[in-house]
Amino acid sequence: MTRPSDKILVEAVFEGEKAAFEELYDRYGPLVRAVCYDTTGNIADAQDLAQDVFMRAFGKIKNLREPDLFARWIVSIARFRCKEWQREKSNMHKKHMALSETYEASIEQSNDGQLQELRVNIRKLPTQERLALHIFYLQENSVEDARRILNLSRSGFYRVLEKARKNLAILLSKESQDVQ
Fold first, then answer.
1. How far is CA 58 from CA 22, 102, 123, in A?
2. Is CATH 1.10.1740.10 the classification given to domain 1-110?
3. Longest C-alpha distance within the chain, in Å?
4. How many Å apart are CA 18 and CA 107, to the nearest integer?
5. 20 CB contacts (<8 Å, ≥6 apart)?
6. pLDDT at 152
7. What is the domain class of 112-180 according to CATH?
């Protein structure tokens, strides 16, 4: 069975078919969550932001002039929403700095140091490499789904993933050398 193109699904949404939007959500939800996780570093916040992104997209989908570019459009909404989230978080941090510092200290004490180090180093990777790691390892998507989400060929996805692993290993190696 052939999957309908994004253009066909978007046009169906234009005509009021909510099931078509649900299919777009299923298709691009992992990518949007990965973009959001890349900003938040927190699964719960990433899921909340992704949900907000799709709510905004649903409300504005009639403004989409090129339905075949839905993937780019939804990612741009996600990136914009993440920037808003960062501003909101920054403003909240300024207002509640003492409480935030106490909270962050308790999180750092409760987190495993290696996991924190891994997260910090993953954030240092280029965007496509970070997304490949998030989608494939953290969200446990299949290679086929991960390569489709990132719009890469199978071999292209494996190259990005391999590069991400090598770069992460280099970063982790430098961290351990600095500690010694």
1. 10, 38, 30
2. yes
3. 63
4. 40
5. 4, 9, 10, 12, 13
6. 86
7. mainly alpha
Q: Cα–Cα distances in Å, from 139 out to 33, 44, 69, 104, 134?
A: 9, 13, 24, 25, 6
Query: So where are the chain's domains?
Result: 1-110, 112-180
Query: pLDDT tens digits for 19-46?
Result: 999 999 999 999 999 999 999 988 889 9
Among 122, 132, 179, which Cα is nearest to 152's? Answer: 132
Pick from 21, 19, 40, 41: nearest CA to 29: 21
Fill in the DSSP letter of residue 42.
Answer: -
Residue 27 identity (one-letter amino acid): R
Beta-strand (E) ranges in the chain? Answer: none
Residue given tokens 């700095």 in the structure block: 97
Helix or strand holding residue 153 (H, E): none
